[in-house]
Design a protein that fits this description.
By secondary structure, the protein is of the alpha/beta class. It folds into two domains: 137 residues, FAD/NAD(P)-binding domain, CATH 3.50.50.60; 118 residues, D-Amino Acid Oxidase, Chain A, domain 2 (2-Layer Sandwich), CATH 3.30.9. Helix content is 28%, strand content 33%. The longest helix has 20 residues.
Length: 274
C-alpha cells in the first residue's frame, strides 16, 4: 500500500524548500513531502541573490539563519553594458520613495543588501528549515514518472538508492525540479525560446582579492563583452566567474576564446583556479 500526502514537492532546491516550508507554516496540519535526488549537500551555480527574496525569507522564518550564515553581503551591482563602456551602478539602497509608495501602498521596510551565497550551504539551510517546520524529506530519491488517474496527476513513482520503485500518492504534486523539468517532459509542455538558446561556462578562483584592493571601487561587476555576458562575483575567499553566450557562437568559447576571457578573469580576481 502506498503512502499519501497532501503535497509532494519534486526538488529540494530553494523553490521546493520554500514552497514546502510556507505550506507547513500556514497549514501545519497538511502532510508535505520533498523528493530530493541528492543524498546530501550538492554544488550548484546561481549564487547571487537579490533583495526581492528578503520578504519571502522573512515570511518563511529563515531570514535570521541566512543572515547569520556568514555569506558576503551584496549591496548592488556594477554594469559595463551596451555601446557606452562607462560603468554604472545599481545600488540596492537607492530607491524612489514615490515609486515605493505607489507599488506597495506605503513605505516598506528598507532592504539594504542581499547575499552572495554558497549554494551547497544555502540550499541546505532552506531544506533543513522546511523540515523543522514539519515537512518530510526523502533524500537520495529520484522522481521517475507521475501517477495519472482519470486525467489528473495523483502522485509520483520514485526510486530509492537501491533502485527499488516507490509509489507515493498525493492531492497535489509540485514540480520544483528546475532545469530537469520533470512534469514538462511527460506532458510535453516545455517550449524553448529561440532567443535564449545560450550555453554557459563557469569557474572558481581561490585567494581572490576584492576589486577595491586595486581600484578603490566596490567589488561588484557584470561585464557585457560583445554578444556575451561575463559575471565576476566574489564570495569570501572564492571568486565566481561565469560566461554566457549564444549557442551558435559556443564553438568560439570552446575553441580558444575562453582562454582570453579566463586571462581577464584571473587578472581581475588576482586568484588561482580552484
Amino acid at each position: 500500500m502506498s503512502e499519501r500526502w497532501d503535497l509532494i514537492v519534486i526538488g529540494g532546491g530553494p523553490a521546493g524548500s520554500t514552497l514546502a516550508g510556507l505550506v507547513k507554516k500556514h497549514a501545519p496540519e497538511r502532510r508535505v513531502l520533498i523528493i530530493e535526488k541528492a543524498p546530501g549537500p550538492r554544488h550548484h551555480v546561481g549564487e547571487s541573490l537579490l533583495p526581492g527574496i528578503i520578504p519571502v525569507l522573512k515570511e518563511l522564518g529563515v531570514y535570521d539563519k541566512i543572515d547569520a550564515a556568514g555569506f558576503p553581503k551584496k549591496l548592488g551591482a556594477t554594469f559595463v553594458w551596451g555601446a557606452d563602456r562607462t560603468p554604472w551602478d545599481a545600488d540596492f539602497t537607492d530607491g524612489s520613495i514615490q515609486e515605493l509608495i505607489e507599488r506597495h501602498g506605503g513605505i516598506p521596510e528598507k532592504i539594504n543588501y542581499a547575499w552572495q551565497v554558497k549554494r551547497s550551504e544555502y540550499d541546505e539551510l532552506l531544506l533543513g528549515h522546511a523540515v523543522e517546520l514539519g515537512a518530510e524529506a526523502a533524500r537520495g530519491e529520484t522522481a521517475l514518472r507521475p501517477i495519472e488517474e482519470d486525467g489528473r496527476i495523483a502522485g509520483v513513482v520514485t526510486a530509492g538508492a537501491d533502485g527499488a520503485e516507490i509509489s507515493r500518492r498525493c492531492d497535489f504534486l509540485a514540480d520544483c525540479s528546475g532545469q530537469d523539468g520533470f512534469l514538462s517532459r511527460f506532458r510535453k509542455t516545455r517550449v524553448y525560446n529561440p532567443g535564449l538558446r545560450n550555453v554557459a561556462a563557469f569557474a572558481y578562483f581561490r585567494g581572490a582579492k576584492w576589486k577595491y584592493t586595486y581600484t578603490g571601487a566596490p567589488s561588484r561587476l557584470l561585464w557585457k563583452i560583445e554578444k556575451r555576458n561575463l559575471w565576476l562575483k566574489k564570495s569570501n575567499n572564492r571568486a565566481s566567474y561565469q560566461l554566457a553566450t549564444r549557442r551558435l557562437r559556443s564553438h568560439e568559447v570552446y575553441q580558444g576564446r575562453t582562454r582570453s576571457y579566463n586571462s581577464r578573469g584571473v587578472a581581475v580576481f588576482a586568484g588561482r583556479p580552484q
